Amino acid sequence: MRHRLSSAIVIAAAALGGLSVPGVAHAAGANCLQGMETTREGAILVKGVWDMPKPAAVYVRDKKTGQRIASVSKFRTEHHPDGAPEWDLISEPLKLSALGIYTLEVGDASSPVVCGDFDYRLRSEMTAPTAGKVSLDNLKTTVSANLTTFDPRTQTAAPFKNARVSLTGEGISLTATTDAQGRLAAPVTFRGTEKSTLLHVKVEATPEMDPEDRFLSVATDRQNAEIVLDPASQKIKAVYGSTAKLTGRASLVAADGTRRPVPEGTPLNGDLDGKPGTGADGRFERQVRVAPLDGQSIKTTWANNKAYPWLSIASDSTEVQLYDTTSFTNFTATIDAARRVTFTGSLIRQTGFGTLGVEAQYSADGKTDWKTRKTFNVYANSTSPFRLTLPGEADGYWRLHYPGTTNTQSATTQPVRLTRTATTFSYFNAAPEPVRKGQTFTIKGTLQHGTPAKAYAGQTVLFYFRPTGSQDYTYQGHSKTAADGTFVHPFEADRTGTWIARYRDADGKHYNAESRQDDLTVNP
User: Fold this and answer.
1) DSSP tag of 418
2) pLDDT digits over 152-205, tens only?
3) Separation of alpha carbons 512 and 524, rounded Å
4) Under a CB-based contact definition with an 8 Å cutoff, are residues 139 and 118 in contact?
5) Which residues, in sequence order, are bridge partners of residue 500?
6) Which end of the chain is more exposed for a tag (fewer CB within 10 A), N or C?
7) Buried/exposed 172-204: b ≥16 CB within 10 Å, e otherwise
């Protein structure tokens, strides 16, 4: 039975002059506070007042005529029901001539502040509905309840006769009428495959009566049952995150052990297509995502699991041997001027971790004859990207490949063509030779690039010398190439040794180049 209509007066703690409630924001110039309700008897209730204020008037205005028809200025105090150090304020029940919804307002009539509605309608009231148990052998029951109306004008209750009551549930939608004593007796028939027997019993609102509703979960006698997966669905091998089809049969089990199919449409726990149901022969098919949360198994049971109303709890499990998935993310491949290939990226493994052997592979055409040039150990799911470097080729395609294992899926990046423009010294010579110490000699040469090779003009050529008996070259000078790619640089002979020329990429598009070694004998 309802005692307060919390939605009836949003008034808001109407207009209690000087009333202060912690945590409540006040609109400028308004005296409407939060926390007001209408009681069953038609009184105004202000909740959770910290002080004992002097109440101001709350006015009731007729929505049709626009006239103020009543005012409330007296409230009594009651201790807050939950024992908090607060008070509630409550007026005497209002006595209005007509039922309906009115406006609550405060302030002067010429500039009132509207605080909400005052619901002064009949209170429709319903006892808790009841119904007899149902089962697969008896799907029919009767929902019973007593309905009354309470009139705030007379403070009396009366049977709610001829009331239209709606009953809705899963697959159920019907309307029943109460008798002259306000008694409801509504027959309901279930299908026996509902995931829930919850019913919503409701009386709709009218201009002179508020709504009323109740919920009833009809009790059931569950029957024994079993779920048996087909042999092929009892143990599967699958890639993590892939889709697998599970099949089997669901049966009712009688006391003597005999079996028959569960009702057609008996729902199982959800799959990728929704909630699958059984066929007339009890067989079912589930499409599931292979990502088990409970260890290495996938459970098949009724929809709502233990809460399924018609059958005793039953299940069967699919043992899963997972193939971990692997993939490369943020993959890049570059080649520098020294023909060094560098790979960067991350290796992702679902659901494992650890070090995996990743192969760097090369193919001249990017389609056939992939050859592994080097194998790197890469830690899967690392928070830092990997960086792998190895010697490259002048032109061709490169990729990373993880070959996989018996329990881990392979992964391969997209091929990337890596190339730069070739540079070569087509001619290089130090002359004359032999030469005497202190005498001038000249290094001449030609720098070319591209295929076919052509002159590479305007480029810097670096010269290096290694004395006989030494392992190290030292820088001696540089020169610029002419329009035909030639270069010339004079040097003063000092000692016997080996000369070379080097080109270093200047535009990010060429390979470095080094000339042949030219030995120059220097005599005393």
Assistant:
1) -
2) 999 999 999 999 999 999 999 999 999 999 999 999 999 999 999 999 999 999
3) 36
4) no
5) 464
6) C
7) beeebebeeebebebebebebbbbebebebbbe
Instruction: For residue 36, give every residue at least 6 positions away whose Cβ sits within 8 Å of its Cβ, in sequence order, or none.
Output: 9, 10, 11, 12, 13, 14, 44, 45, 46, 47, 115, 116
Residues 513-520: contacts with CB within 8 Å, 24+ apart?
513/422, 513/423, 513/424, 513/425, 513/447, 514/425, 515/425, 515/428, 515/445, 516/425, 516/428, 518/428, 518/429, 518/430, 518/443, 520/430, 520/433, 520/434, 520/435, 520/441, 520/493, 520/496
d(CA 356, CA 159): 79
Token digits for 92? 């005497």
Q: Which two tokens stand for residue 291?
A: 């990502």
**Number of helical H runs and strand E runs in the chain:** 1, 44
CA atoms within 13 A on the CB side of 365: 3
Nearest to 319 by CA among 290, 283, 350, 340: 290
Kind plus residue range of the DSSP H or E element containing 5: strand 4-5
Give CA torsion, residues 131, 135, 137, 142, to 10 deg.
Answer: 10
Residues in CB range of 63: below 8 A, 6 or more apart: 100, 101, 102, 103
Strands (E), 196-275: 198-203, 212-217, 225-229, 235-239, 243-253, 259-261
**Three-class secondary structure of residue 63 per DSSP:** coil
The CB density around residue 17, as the number of other CB atoms within 10 Å, is 12
Which residue type is seen at 266? T
pLDDT of residue 266: 96
Phi, psi of 284 (to 5 degrees): -145, 165
CB-CB contact of 376 with 341 (8 Å) = no
Q: Residue 116: what pLDDT?
A: 84
C-alpha triplet 97, 101, 102: angle, nearest 5°? 75
Q: Which residue has the tokens 């609550």?
A: 104
| Tokens representing residue 481 in the block | 């190439």
Q: Which pair of tokens denotes residue 181? A: 């004593």
Does 294 score more than 70 pLDDT?
no
| Per-position b or e across 268-297, b if 16+ CB within 10 A of its CB | bbebeeeebbbeeebebbbebebebeeeee
Do 210 and 121 meet the contact criterion of CB atoms below 8 Å apart?
yes
| Cα gap 8→40, rounded to integer Å | 10
Which of 425 and 275 is assigned the larger pLDDT?
425
| Coil vs helix vs strand at 234 | helix
Tokens of 22: 């912690």
Please report the beta strands in 170-224, taking only residues with DSSP state E, as ranges in sequence order: 172-177, 183-189, 198-203, 212-217
User: What pLDDT score does 407 carry?
Assistant: 85
Question: Considering the entire predicted model, what is its pTM?
Answer: 0.65
Give the three-class secondary structure for 345: strand
Direct distance between the N- and C-terminal alpha carbons of the chain, in angstroms, rounded to an integer: 124
Structure tokens at 492: 């003063």
